Amino acid sequence: MRGDRLINIGFGNYVLAGRVVSIVSPSSSPMKRLREDARAEGRLIDATQGRKTRSILVTDSNHVLLSSIQPETISQRFAQEEGS
């Protein structure tokens, strides 16, 4: 099943492709609020290894994942997985 495929979000961290709802850039104010709300509620997963956050992934369970990889790169990885 395609939803069971793992996508690398950087530094050996993976997420199930079927669980990701969106991949967004962290620069806008609503995304900054989303990150802070998730942190306050214990739904934030930081996979940046201390580096700058370049993308935010939101899952169907309402968890928020931070990645230091560009959103375009992650979306290309999703497209490659769909093609294989």
Notes on the structure:
The protein is an alpha+beta fold and 84 residues long. The protein has one domain (2-83). The protein is 31% helix and 31% strand. It contains two helices and six strands. The strands form two sheets. Strands 3-5-6-4 form a four-stranded mixed β-sheet, with helices on both faces. The protein has a two-stranded antiparallel ribbon with strand order 1-2. β5 and β6 form a beta hairpin. The longest helix is centred in the middle third of the chain and has 13 residues, at 29-41. It starts with 5 loop residues before the first strand and ends with a helix. 15% of the residues are buried. The model has no long low-confidence stretch (mean pLDDT 93).
Which oligomeric state applies?
A: single chain
State the helical fraction.
25-40%
Instruction: Write down how many β-strands occur, each being a DSSP E stretch of 2 or more residues.
Output: 6
- What coarse outline follows from CA principal-axis ratios? globular
* Total number of domains: 1
Strand content range: 25-35%
The low-pLDDT segments are: none
Major sheet strand order: 3-5-6-4
The helix/strand class is alpha+beta
Number of helices: 2
Radius of gyration: 12 Å
Largest sheet, strands/sense/barrel: 4 strands, mixed
**Mean pLDDT across every amino acid position:** 93
Which H/E pattern describes the elements? EEEHEEEH
What is the end-to-end distance? 12 Å
